[in-house]
């Protein structure tokens, strides 16, 4: 009987975190939970900890410490709370693999802590690689740990290249659903609401990534993520819109052959593959039925309407701290859009302006990334405040 894989989940209460726990629940003979974390959702974290009895839990919101500690008094779990709680809980967990399922820049520190603790990382938090790709890849190499993609497109590519030499990869195609506003004009987009933007056609996900899908920033972030995961140049990464989200991505090889990975839109499959790699475990996930999808279609992204994809390629070409600046500005505008402070189209304008004015560092250290993130947020927030009045009067 093989030893059970010991798992830490950063962001256990979110969309990826809860689906990861479904995968673990379905395979108790393979997996055991060692660490769980939440931002503020103490109720769910407590229920998860009572069910899975991890060695450690972390709650970022310090005010929830006593509540979580009291609720887990009958469970052999150490509770950490506050700013460094996730790093501490990871270090003390003894896990073999960490699922990085936090959202945004907040995922970087805990993911680095998992790597430093010698854990493999099942990476959903794409922002970690967008912000500090070189640093993360170097640290993973130094500690001899694997970065296993969870993002559906990157998992698809990873599955397509198993057994292939890196030198035979000519290019990759990342598929994009096109989001809820595929085919819409800029005039239409100027009045769309948060509720409309949150209605993804195929996937149920957290709010931030759902807005990123609607603006195509998600695909921009994924282009940068792919560069680091698969050691590719920007010109080797293309985006193709595929509204059915069945073909999760494709790889073209030097002989012209293309491999694709297909399946129903269900994140449990890429999560499970990352946890069992190099094995492919059985599952009872719902199977694809050709009768339900008589046509799988593909079209070019509308980059004249959705400007974020070009901004992401620009950040990738500039390198250094620019992808970090792009990411921070994007986090600010997405939060502002969700609060009704800026309109849909203003998001790209503010990101673009932030990238123009924020200082660029060619070879950043971790401290430089933290500062670039802070400075970009400051600039973007200032631009949000400036445009807020104009947007609200126009509404
Ligand atoms: N959802 C999906 O299907 C997919 C997601 N991804 C990527 O995976 C990552 C997670 O996405 P998703 O699960 O949708 O996000 P959610 O918003 O659903 O979940 C985020 C998780 O992170 C926690 N969290 C958020 N902010 C902080 C913080 N500052 N400190 C500590 N914990 C925090 C939340 O805790 P709490 O619940 O307490 O707020 C929650 O557990 C993102 O990077 C996303 O791009 C990639 C592909 C698909
Ligand atoms: C499930 C997943 O990996 C998401 O990143 C998804 O791809 C988002 O859909 P879009 O293709 O609309 O960005
Ligand atoms: Mn994706």
TrEMBL record:
GO molecular-function term, one example from the UniProt record: 1-deoxy-D-xylulose-5-phosphate reductoisomerase activity
Gene3D superfamilies assigned to the protein according to its UniProt record, in alphabetical order: 1.10.1740.10, NAD(P)-binding Rossmann-like Domain
Catalytic reactions on record: 2-C-methyl-D-erythritol 4-phosphate + NADP(+) = 1-deoxy-D-xylulose 5-phosphate + NADPH + H(+)
Annotated Pfam families: DXP_redisom_C, DXP_reductoisom, DXPR_C
EC number of this enzyme: 1.1.1.267
Residue ranges constituting the 1-deoxy-D-xylulose 5-phosphate reductoisomerase N-terminal domain according to the UniProt record: 7-133
Location of the 1-deoxy-D-xylulose 5-phosphate reductoisomerase C-terminal domain: 147-230
InterPro entries per the UniProt record, alphabetical: DXP_reductoisomerase (IPR003821), DXP_reductoisomerase_C (IPR013644), DXP_reductoisomerase_N (IPR013512), DXPR_C (IPR026877), DXPR_C_sf (IPR036169), NAD(P)-bd_dom_sf (IPR036291)
Residues annotated as binding 1-deoxy-D-xylulose 5-phosphate: 126, 152-153, 177, 200, 213, 218-219, 222
Binding site for Mn(2+): 151, 153, 222
DXP reductoisomerase C-terminal domain boundaries: 262-378
Domain of life according to the entry: Bacteria
Presence of the UniProt keyword Oxidoreductase in the record: yes
Keywords: Isoprene biosynthesis, Magnesium, Manganese, Metal-binding, NADP, Oxidoreductase
Cofactor: Mg(2+); Mn(2+)
Keyword Metal-binding: yes
NCBIfam families: Dxr, PRK12464.1
UniProt family annotation: Belongs to the DXR family.
Function as written in the Swiss-Prot or TrEMBL entry: Catalyzes the NADPH-dependent rearrangement and reduction of 1-deoxy-D-xylulose-5-phosphate (DXP) to 2-C-methyl-D-erythritol 4-phosphate (MEP).
Record protein name field: 1-deoxy-D-xylulose 5-phosphate reductoisomerase
Organism per entry: Parapedobacter deserti
């Amino acid at each position: 009987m093989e030893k059970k894989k010991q798992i830490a989940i950063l962001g256990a209460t979110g969309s990826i975190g809860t689906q990861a726990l479904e995968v673990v629940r379905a395979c108790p003979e393979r997996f055991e939970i060692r660490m769980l974390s939440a931002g503020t959702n103490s109720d769910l974290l407590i229920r998860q900890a009572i069910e899975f009895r991890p060695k450690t839990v972390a709650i970022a919101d310090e005010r929830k410490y006593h509540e979580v500690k009291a609720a887990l008094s009958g469970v052999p779990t150490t509770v950490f709370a506050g700013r460094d709680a996730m790093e501490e809980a990871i270090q003390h967990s003894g896990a073999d693999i960490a699922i990085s399922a936090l959202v945004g820049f907040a995922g970087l520190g805990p993911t680095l802590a998992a790597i430093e603790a010698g854990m493999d990382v099942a990476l959903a938090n794409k922002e970690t690689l967008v912000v500090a790709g070189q640093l993360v890849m170097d640290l993973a190499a130094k500690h001899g740990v694997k970065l296993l993609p969870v993002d559906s497109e990157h998992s698809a590519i990873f599955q397509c290249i198993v057994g292939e030499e890196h030198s035979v990869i000519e290019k990759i195609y990342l598929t994009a659903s096109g989001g809820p506003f595929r085919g819409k004009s800029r005039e239409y987009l100027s009045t769309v609401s948060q509720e409309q933007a949150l209605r993804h056609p195929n996937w149920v996900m957290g709010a931030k990534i759902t807005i990123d899908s609607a603006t195509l920033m998600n695909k921009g972030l994924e282009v940068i993520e792919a560069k680091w995961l698969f050691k590719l140049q920007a010109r080797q990464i293309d985006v193709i819109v595929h509204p059915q989200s069945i073909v999760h991505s494709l790889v073209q090889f030097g002989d012209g052959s293309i491999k694709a990975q297909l399946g129903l839109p269900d994140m449990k499959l890429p999560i499970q593959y990352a946890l069992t790699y190099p094995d492919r475990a059985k599952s009872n996930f719902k199977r694809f039925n050709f009768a339900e999808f008589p046509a799988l279609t593909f079209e070019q992204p509308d980059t004249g309407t959705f400007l974020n994809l070009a901004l992401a390629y620009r950040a990738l070409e500039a390198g250094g701290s620019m992808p970090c600046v792009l990411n921070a500005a994007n986090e600010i505008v997405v939060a502002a859009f969700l609060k009704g402070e800026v309109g849909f189209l203003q998001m790209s304008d503010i990101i673009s302006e932030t990238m123009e004015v924020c200082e660029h560092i060619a070879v950043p250290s971790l401290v430089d990334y933290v500062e670039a993130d802070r400075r970009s947020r400051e600039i973007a927030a200032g631009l949000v405040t400036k445009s807020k009045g104009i947007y609200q009067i126009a509404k």
